[in-house]
Amino acid sequence: MKTFDLIATSTFGIESVVRHEVEELGYEINEVADGKITYTGDIEAIVLSNLWLRSADRVLLKMGEFEAKTFETLFNEVAALPWEEWITKDAKFTVNGKSVKSALFSISDCQAIVKKAIVTRLQKVYGIEWFEETGPAYTVQVSLLKDIATLTIDTTGSEGLHKRGYRVSNVEAPIKETLAAALLQISYWQKGRILYDPCCGSGTFAIEAAMMAKNIAPGLNRSFASCAWPQVPRKLWQELREEAREQIDQKGSPIIYASDINRNAILSARENAEAAGVGEYIQFFAKPIHKTSLPHGDYGVVICNPPYGERISDIKELPRLHKDLRTLIDSNETWSFYSVTSAPEFERDFGKKANKKRKLFNGRIPVQFYQYFGPRPPKGGENFKAVE
């Protein structure tokens, strides 16, 4: 089967997690750069990547890469690429662009040149002057970085991979599903350990953990742009979705708790969990942190995205919130604790330096992922490896 290069894009700081997920699918990594993991795959890889990658933002089909310092070069190089292998003569396609530290800095001009070059080639190949645009949709992206142009087609679609399809409530999610999944993999948590999120909001950490523990493919119940492409057979989508359903763990029951001070948030989180098919595996309850306690059991993991910025009405509440989290985790020395926040004084308020920190972005907000390691379980500790 013919192979080609695919790019899994990611939030800055979690490239290693996405790389691990791609390798778990069985594909060879070609390059890891800021925000993107390039690997070799086939038609089946397009389907499996969209269905199974938990931490990637999008899956892009790489069409070509070249140096472009002039619009003439950009036009000629784009026109030389085999767009007809993917874009049908009845297709409707758009071009998005971005440029960083490049001579061709006008994004709108770059988009127009790329569009013209593709149309020119397709007109010649198909022998037509007018495109009906009644067929499948394709989104082409031209990305210029230090004068190197990368041309891709988005296999995922207008909504990124974080749109799992389970968020039925209108409550805004404080953390993207893809980032939550990545942080769970970075942590010590595995399905054999207790998980507790005391600031759960709409339930993202708990739901993503339950889906991971039950081996539910994150893209199982949603559609992608490439579902409509004739190059990716509909039967293949059906077969691989059915295989994914058969791989769901029907026996295991993860131990997951989630609480929040906001009762409405808990109601929304329950709705979302039910929509994700994991409602029965998560115990939700409404309670402020200073009135809660760790669930019974040793070697558990607390992971949370405590309120900060616009999510907290009074900035003066933050130090007390962080101190309450310290009191909570200190009640059992075998537990591990993880917090993702933009609050600059978190460690000071928490009263303890993190064992490890990781710089990340939650959307466009720069954050730190503070990691406090508890001891490994005395038996089977080798089964609880975190992604580096």
From TrEMBL:
Q: What is this protein called?
A: Class I SAM-dependent RNA methyltransferase
Molecular function GO terms recorded: RNA binding; rRNA (guanine-N2-)-methyltransferase activity; rRNA (guanine-N7-)-methyltransferase activity
Q: Which organism is it from?
A: Zhenhengia yiwuensis
Q: Which PANTHER family match?
A: RIBOSOMAL RNA LARGE SUBUNIT METHYLTRANSFERASE K/L (PTHR47313), RIBOSOMAL RNA LARGE SUBUNIT METHYLTRANSFERASE K_L (PTHR47313:SF1)
Alphabetized CDD domains for the sequence: THUMP_AdoMetMT
Pfam families noted in UniProt: RlmL_1st, THUMP, UPF0020
Cross-referenced InterPro entries, in alphabetical order?
DNA_methylase_N6_adenine_CS, RlmKL-like_Mtase, RlmL_1st, SAM-dependent_MTases_sf, THUMP_dom
Recorded hits in SMART domains, A to Z, give: THUMP (SM00981)
